[in-house]
Each structure stands twice: as C-alpha cells, then as structure tokens.
Amino acid sequence: MLPPAFCVLLIALAVYPLEGTGYGIRFMLQLFMWIALAQSWNLISGLTGYVSFGHIAFFGMGAYTAGILIVKLGWPWLWASLAGGVGALVLALVIGWPCLRLKGPYFAIAMLGLNEVLRVAVSYFEGLTGGGSGLSLPALYASVPIYYAMGLVALAVTALAYVIVTSRFGLRLMTIREDEVAAEAMGIDTFRYKLYAFLLSAVGPGIVGGLAARDQSYIEPISVFPLIMTITMIVMVLFGGKGTIWGPVLGAVLLFTLQEMIWARFIYVHQLLFGAIIVAVVLLMPRGILGVLQQKYNLPRTI
Asked: Is 135 in a helix, a strand, or coil?
C-alpha cells in the first residue's frame, strides 16, 4: 500500500496542469524526463556496476523511431512513442549481446562508441531521417498530454526499480556489482541477468525520446545524441545514490531544480557554477545523499 504522503503528491501532480503556469508545466515535464532517464541508467549501471557512457543512444533511437513513424506513416504520437521504446529495446538486444561480455572500461568505451555510430548513421540516411538538417514534425500545441505521458513513464520506471531492488533478481544484480567472479562461482548466470537489466534500462529512454521528439516538434542528430545528457543522468544518480530506489529521483529533482535556479540568476556563468557544485558534491559524498543516510542511520536498501 502506498504511503499517504506519496498518494497526496501524485494527486497534486495530476491536477497541477489545471492551475499551473506554462513555465511550471514545462519545468515539470522536463523534470519527469530526467527522472525517467536517471532511473533507467540506474537499472543497469547502479545495480550491476557496468557504467554506460552511451545510454543516450536509446533516447535518440526512440526519438527518431517516433519521429519517422509520425512524419512518414502518420502514426499517433502516443503509439509512436511506445514504438520508440520497442526500437530502443531491439537496439539494446543487438548491442548488449556482444558488449555485455566486455568488462570495466571496455564496456564503457563500447557504449560511448555506440552513441557516436548512431549519430553518424542518422546523419547519413538523409532520405529517412533528414540527415544533418533534422526532421520536422507537424506542430502540436499539447504540452499537457505530453506532461501526463512523461509523468507516467517516470512513475513506471521508478516502480520497476522498486520491484527489481526488492526482488531476488535485484539481489543477484547487486551481487554482480560487488564481485562478478564470486557471483559466477555461486552459480549465477551473470551474462543473462546483465542482459535482462540492460534491456529493461533501455525501454524508458526510448519512450521518453519519442515523447521529447513529439514535444519539441523538431529533432536533429546533435540534439538527441548529446554526450552531456548521459553525463547529466550519471551525475544525478551519483548525487542521489546509485543502486537505490529513490536516489535517482532525489538527484534529478535537486540537480535539475538547482540548474534552473543558477541559469535564471547567472545566465553567463551558470554552467561553470553548476559544474563546480557537482564536483564538490561528488567529492564530498561519493556514495550520494541516500548512500550517506543509509550508512549513517542503517536505513534499508529499499529506499
């Protein structure tokens, strides 16, 4: 049963578009996106320790899958966005099968290369993707439906994280993170579990990418495959606490809000200040906020 405070929060978020400002709705929409992205990265890298520097590739795959289906075939944006999740899932299966056999920095470099390969491929197939000029979608002035869809994705990915972390599946993933050789010696099929986690972590960014493409009405290779987005979701997870349920949510809320506040007040040096704050937090709290609280107060791992 859900805690009363959490139910109140969900109700407040559900009715917010009825009274909220245009900026407030846009802010929450973007926040939902970052929660879904950070939580998805946490499913593979936070739980297994396999650091992915190319997770934004699934976001871009979802964006272009949805964009092409909307522009070329006239699909409704919701179904096209869900198809973006399927496209990201297929990509994860194709790339995960060989790459998850790599370990440590080799896996990280392979994922980084995947992002660059997809960006170049999208730029090359101009007839389908628009190439470097991008792909323009029909104008849609409907931020509120996107707001609800993005919120549901963020909620679904967080619920998935809760189910995984509190299950034997999650315990085996964390065993792999702590000592993969020992996990194999215990009879755990480490490759199979890593692949399952990798596939689950790709669906959320794929759907979110499709929703973002529909919301922005224009996509191009540079805008949907930026490395900075992967770095941001990594920092959000590290800030909140990797391998936890609520750490990515906390990290996304705090860092995105902080970023907006700094940008509004220090428009010319906001990136420098934001970067300095991130470095300070990572150095002072390498386990993240929830990691520190868990260690200090002996809190359960189910937070």
From this structure: strand
Task: Work out whether strand 135-136 and strand 218-219 pair parallel, antiparallel, or are unpaired.
Answer: antiparallel
Residue 5 burial by Cβ neighbours in a 10 Å radius (0-12, 13-18, 19+): exposed
Q: What are phi and psi of 136, to 5 degrees?
A: -95, 130
- Bridge partners (DSSP) listed for residue 119: none
* Residue position matching structure tokens 């006239």: 74
pLDDT tens-digit map of 95-106: 999 999 888 788
Helix or strand run (H / E) with residue 7: helix 4-19
Kindly report the length of the chain: 303
Which one, of 84, 59, 64, 6, lies nearest residue 219 by Cα? 64
Nearest to 108 by CA among 97, 119, 100, 120: 100
pLDDT at 265: 73
**Residue 246 carries which DSSP code?**
S
- What 258-264 contacts at long range (C-beta under 8 Å, 24+ apart), as own/partner pairs, is 260/27
Contacts of residue 196, defined as CB under 8 A and 6 or more positions apart, other chains included, come to 169
Q: Select from 298, 144, 157, 295 the least CA-distant residue to 211.
A: 144
Euclidean distance between CA atoms 119 and 175, whole angstroms: 34
What CA–CA distance (Å, rounded) separates 129 from 150? Answer: 24
- For the residues 118-134, what does the mean pLDDT come to? 86
Alpha helices in the chain (DSSP H): 4-19, 22-41, 47-48, 56-73, 77-99, 105-124, 126-129, 143-165, 168-178, 180-185, 190-216, 221-224, 227-240, 247-265, 270-284, 288-297
- pLDDT single digits (tens) 199-235: 999 999 999 999 999 988 889 988 899 888 888 898 8
